[in-house]
C-alpha cells in the first residue's frame, strides 16, 4: 500500500488483498473511492475532498481501491458509477454511489461530526456484505434478472413444445397405418405355468413387442375405408383416420372379434368364446405369505397404444432404428424473416437493378400511384411491367419491395439505395403485405392524358344522345 500524491491531498492507493487488509486494520474514519481499472478513480471529487481535508485535519483518511484484484470488493466490478465506502475500525459504516459533490460533502461532514462526538453509526457491516442501499439495488436488479431468465426459459419451452408438436403432427400421419402390440411373458404359458409353444424359449421372462401393419378393416367397422383426402397429391394425408388402427386393434382384444370374411363356397368356421381375449388371459399373481405387504394382483395379457400420439412414443422407445429408417424426420427450417422498403419514383433505375440481381429474395414487389393504400392503385408487379405497360408515368409513383432476408447482400442491395422507408421487423413487413398486397388485388394500368380526353369525349357524346332521346319522348305526345 502506497501513498499517492494528489493536488494538496494525500491518499492511500490500494490494489491487492494484502493492501486491503492493511487498510482495514487502520483505526479511525476512512473514505474509500472504489473503482475499476477500466474506469479509474473519480477525479471530479478531488477538490471537494481537498477542502474537507483542510477543514477536518487528521479526523479522516482517504484511499482509492482498485477492485479488480480485491475479493471483498468483487461486487463493485463492472460499475462505471463511483462508489464511496466509509470505513471505521475495519467495518463499513456508510456507503454512497455517484459523483454528486454536495451530497458527498454533506455525508462526509456528518460522518466526521459523528466520529468527533463519539456517536455510534446507524449500522456496521463487514466490507464484503451489502449495505442497505446496495441491498435495495440488488433486489431490483435481481427481480429484473429473474424476469429476463423466466422470459428466456418460457421462450425456450415454447420453442421446444412447438418443435415437439411439429414432430408429433408429422409422425401421427406417417404411422397411421401401423400400430404396436406388447405381449407379456405369461401370454406364452398355460394355466399351470407351462410353455404354450416354442416361442417360450425366446420370450421366457420377457415381453414381446410387435409392429403391426394395418389392413382394410372388416366391413362392419364404422369408419369408411379407405379414408382419402380430396387432393392427395397436394397435401400429406393418412389413408385412414389417425386413430383407426388403434381403435380396431383395441376392439379385437377388448371386445368380440368381428366375424370372418366368407372367401369360398364352404362356410368358414370360427371358434366362439364366452369372454373377450383380454378377460380370458388375465394373469393373477398370488401374494407371498411370507411377505406381509404383498397383495394379490391381476395383470393384463397384452397392451396396445390407446391413441395415435401414444403410439409415436411406443415406436420411439421400442423401435427407434425402424422409425428413423422408415420415417426419417427433419426439423423444418424456420421461415426467413422479411424486410420492407419504399422508394420514390426517382430511384427506379437502382431498384430495377437490385430487383434483377436478387430476384430469388423478392417476396412482393409493387408500383403504386402514390403511398396511400388502399386508395392508391397498384400499377405493376415488376420493374419490367412498369417500364413496358405503364405508358403515362407521373413521377410520384411509389415502389414497395418486400424481401426475404436470405443474406446480407440482398438486404444491403436495397437498403443502400436510400429508401425513404425501411423496416427490418418481420411483423411490420407482414402487416405491409396485408396492407399493400391483399389477396385478389390486380394491377391497374392508368390511361394517358390523350386516352382520358378521348374517354371523356365519348362519355359526353353518350350523355348528349341520352338527353336528346329523353326530350323526344317528352314532346312526342304533347296532349298527355
From TrEMBL:
Alphabetized UniProt keyword annotations: Coiled coil
Acidic residues: bias regions: 460-474
All copies of domain Thioredoxin, residue ranges: 14-99
SUPFAM superfamilies (UniProt xref): Thioredoxin-like (SSF52833)
Disordered as annotated region, ranges: 460-480
Statement: the UniProt record of this protein carries the keyword Coiled coil: yes
UniProt xrefs under InterPro entries: DUF4746 (IPR031827), Thioredoxin-like_sf (IPR036249), Thioredoxin_domain (IPR013766), TXND_domain-containing (IPR051766)
Name assigned to this protein: Thioredoxin domain-containing protein
Annotated ranges, domain DUF4746: 199-261, 269-443
Alphabetized Gene3D superfamilies for the sequence: Glutaredoxin
Amino acid at each position: 500500500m502506497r501513498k499517492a500524491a494528489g493536488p494538496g491531498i494525500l491518499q492511500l492507493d490500494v490494489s491487492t488483498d494484502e493492501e486491503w487488509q492493511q487498510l482495514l486494520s487502520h483505526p479511525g474514519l476512512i473514505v474509500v473511492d472504489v473503482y475499476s481499472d477500466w474506469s479509474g478513480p473519480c477525479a471530479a471529487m478531488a477538490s471537494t475532498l481537498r477542502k474537507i481535508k483542510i477543514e477536518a485535519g487528521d479526523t479522516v483518511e482517504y484511499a482509492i481501491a482498485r477492485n479488480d484484484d480485491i475479493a471483498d470488493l468483487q461486487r463493485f466490478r463492472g460499475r462505471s458509477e463511483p462508489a464511496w465506502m466509509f470505513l471505521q475500525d475495519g467495518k463499513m459504516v456508510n456507503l454512497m454511489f455517484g459523483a454528486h459533490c454536495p451530497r458527498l460533502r454533506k455525508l462526509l461532514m456528518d460522518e466526521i461530526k459523528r466520529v468527533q462526538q463519539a456517536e455510534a453509526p446507524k449500522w456496521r457491516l463487514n466490507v464484503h456484505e451489502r449495505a442497505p442501499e446496495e441491498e435495495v439495488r440488488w433486489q431490483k436488479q435481481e427481480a429484473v434478472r429473474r424476469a429476463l431468465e423466466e422470459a428466456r426459459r418460457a421462450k425456450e419451452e415454447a420453442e421446444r413444445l412447438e418443435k415437439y408438436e411439429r414432430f408429433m403432427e408429422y409422425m401421427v400421419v406417417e404411422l397411421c397405418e401401423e400400430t404396436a402390440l406388447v405381449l407379456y411373458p405369461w401370454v406364452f404359458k398355460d394355466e399351470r405355468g407351462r410353455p404354450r409353444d416354442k416361442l417360450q424359449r425366446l420370450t421366457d421372462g420377457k415381453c414381446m413387442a410387435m409392429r403391426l401393419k394395418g389392413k382394410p378393416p372388416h366391413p362392419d367397422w364404422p369408419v369408411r375405408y379407405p379414408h382419402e383426402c380430396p387432393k392427395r397429391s397436394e397435401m400429406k394425408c393418412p389413408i385412414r383416420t389417425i386413430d383407426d388402427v388403434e381403435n380396431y386393434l383395441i376392439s379385437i382384444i377388448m371386445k368380440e372379434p368381428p366375424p370372418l370374411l366368407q372367401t369360398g363356397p364352404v362356410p368358414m368356421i370360427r371358434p366362439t368364446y364366452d369372454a373377450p381375449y383380454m378377460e380370458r388371459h388375465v394373469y393373477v399373481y398370488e401374494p407371498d405369505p411370507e411377505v406381509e405387504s404383498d397383495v394379490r394382483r391381476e395383470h393384463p395379457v397384452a397392451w396396445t397404444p390407446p391413441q395415435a400420439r401414444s403410439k409415436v412414443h411406443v415406436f420411439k422407445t421400442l423401435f427407434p432404428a425402424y422409425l428413423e429408417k422408415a420415417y426419417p424426420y427433419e426439423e423444418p427450417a424456420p421461415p426467413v424473416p422479411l424486410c420492407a422498403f419504399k422508394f420514390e419514383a426517382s430511384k427506379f433505375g437502382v431498384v430495377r437493378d437490385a430487383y434483377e440481381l436478387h430476384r430469388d429474395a423478392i417476396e412482393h414487389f409493387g408500383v403504386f400511384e402514390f403511398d396511400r393504400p388502399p386508395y392508391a392503385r397498384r400499377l405493376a408487379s415488376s420493374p419490367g411491367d412498369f417500364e413496358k405497360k405503364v405508358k403515362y408515368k407521373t413521377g410520384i409513383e411509389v415502389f414497395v419491395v418486400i424481401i426475404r432476408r436470405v443474406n446480407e447482400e440482398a438486404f444491403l442491395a436495397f437498403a443502400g439505395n436510400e429508401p425513404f422507408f425501411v423496416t427490418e421487423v418481420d411483423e411490420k413487413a407482414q402487416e405491409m403485405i396485408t396492407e399493400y398486397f391483399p389477396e385478389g388485388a390486380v394491377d391497374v394500368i392508368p390511361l394517358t392524358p390523350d386516352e382520358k380526353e378521348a374517354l371523356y369525349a365519348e362519355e359526353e357524346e353518350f350523355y348528349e344522345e341520352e338527353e336528346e332521346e329523353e326530350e323526344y319522348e317528352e314532346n312526342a305526345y304533347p296532349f298527355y
